[in-house]
Design goal:
The chain is built from six helices and two strands. The chain has helices at 2-8, 13-26, 33-44, 53-56, 66-81, 88-104; strands at 60-61, 64-65. The longest helix has 17 residues, at 88-104. The mean pLDDT is 77.
């Protein structure tokens, strides 16, 4: 996890390129081949602007990096939904309660 965090929290494209090479070198064993391919295809090539810090730092919201705000909201939503097997009505009710609670506590 530490190596992954070092990769996504770099401050420039040049730093990312160097860190990515180090990451690939560290995980070049055949046992990591599938996961390395997955990371490259699904994350690095597909949507780097959605999670790499040097991209997300360009978009601030109330002084916070966009990814921090999104991750916090996602975590809160998951905590309030409890399980992924609820029916749609239970999900909507829990979501409404979460929004109401955040509004009441000024945590939005």
């Amino acid at each position: 996890m530490k190596r992954w965090n070092c990769l996504i929290y770099v401050s420039s494209q040049a730093d990312f390129d160097a860190t990515w090479v180090a990451f690939q070198t560290r995980y070049e064993a055949p046992v990591f081949a599938d996961i390395s391919t997955y990371i490259l295809k699904e994350w690095i090539d597909s949507c780097p602007k959605n999670f790499l810090r040097f991209y997300t730092d360009q978009y601030l919201y109330r002084g916070e990096a966009a990814i921090s705000r999104t991750e916090a909201s996602h975590w809160l939503l998951k905590q309030d939904l409890y399980v992924s097997t609820n029916d749609i009505l239970a999900v909507l009710d829990n979501f409404k309660l979460m929004i109401d609670r955040q509004y009441a506590n000024n945590k939005f």
